[in-house]
Write a structure and sequence with these properties.
homodimer, about 210 residues, alpha/beta, seven-stranded mixed β-sheet, 7 strands, about 25% strand
Chain lengths: ~210, ~210
């Protein structure tokens, strides 16, 4: 009898879910980065956020250019485990900082952040964002590369930035839109917003091709 | 008798002026652009704003690269007419948009803005900001060039941007930090903040050399 008793509730639940799916934005952003959310808002893309903690390890022999797409796909896979994949489109992204073919991660503490910035000082590095868009029938994946050249930073500038801005959640220990980006970056080559974490214009073009925006 | 009666007030006035000059930030920004103010704030530069309306014409045979420095110097000269030049440092800037060696000005109306953006669509143009810093004994002047490449924009995108964002006060009829910049710009080469109106990192370096920041 048990499954029969519960059946009406199941029907109501499914109906509610369908109604919600119609009214919810069709895109799920699988990222908790406030910068990515802001960029999508600036681009006037409607979305909701769903994030599941993801293991960000990757095969050690993977070329660096492929690493952020690999991790973005993993983020998408994790969210997909918990959702109905036939309803919505998933957008996942991961950004890495690469200096001389070596991935520069997030700093562990202030001393580490200072040593990372001292390494980036006066040099050109690459910021690579991997993007994975999963639509029910199709996956679009690409990596966008922007070159960033820092002025030579003084030890005082580095110390001031790390103490005041605490860049511990940021790959490469800096954010281009913060003080160090404004006074310390000489030039970039490529998409500026990619350095903030999402190559928005390519994402919007891809969504447009999927008739989603 | 008249000038004798007024003398004590004159002394008090001069004293007040000197005290204010000590406490006021040492830099005067000769620009009413809210974007330039914001950039200097992000760079943690203290300043006050003084603007005098300036005639922005220039000699017709001036090479385009020299035009914004010419206009910035004119803005500085106008403010200097009304201040005590021995006290403070003046920072003036002017930004122009150049397509195929032709200066693209500010749009007159919505139709003009749309035709400017249709021209920039799918092409690379240059944004040149002229900066003039006048310190009591020395003038620093330079032009910073950033190349900006637009995706091919649709008529619908252009219309939406002009209607919603009203870019009539902007050279080239767009702002890189607004919707059209986020979804429509493919890449840039050079200083991003220069496109917003001020090559902040070079300005800060110049002020630093003058021991002002």
């Amino acid at each position: 009898m048990d499954h029969v008793d519960r059946y009406p509730f199941y029907v109501i639940f499914r109906l509610l879910f369908l109604i919600m799916a119609i009214y919810l934005p069709p895109i799920i952003l699988a990222s908790q980065s406030p910068r990515r959310r802001q960029l999508l808002e600036w681009a006037e893309v409607e979305f909701t956020v769903e994030v599941i903690p993801t293991d960000e390890t990757f095969p050690p022999d993977l070329p660096v250019e492929e690493v952020p797409v690999f991790i973005a796909r993993e983020k998408a896979r994790r969210v997909n485990e918990f959702r109905n994949p036939h309803h919505l489109t998933l957008l996942a992204a991961d950004t890495i900082v690469v200096l001389e073919n070596r991935i520069i991660g997030k700093p562990n503490d202030a001393a580490h952040a200072e040593s990372i910035l001292a390494e980036l000082s006066g040099k050109t590095h690459r910021v690579i964002t991997g993007v994975v868009i999963q639509h029910p029938q199709v996956e679009v994946a690409f990596a966008e590369i922007t070159e960033v050249t820092f002025h030579t930073l003084t030890a005082g500038q580095i110390k001031h930035y790390v103490e005041r801005y605490q860049p511990f959640d940021k790959a490469g220990a800096y954010a281009i839109q913060e003080w160090i980006g404004v006074v310390g970056i000489q030039s970039i080559k490529g998409d500026f917003y990619n350095v903030m974490g999402l190559p928005v214009s390519r994402v919007v073009q891809a969504l447009h091709k999927l008739s989603l925006h």
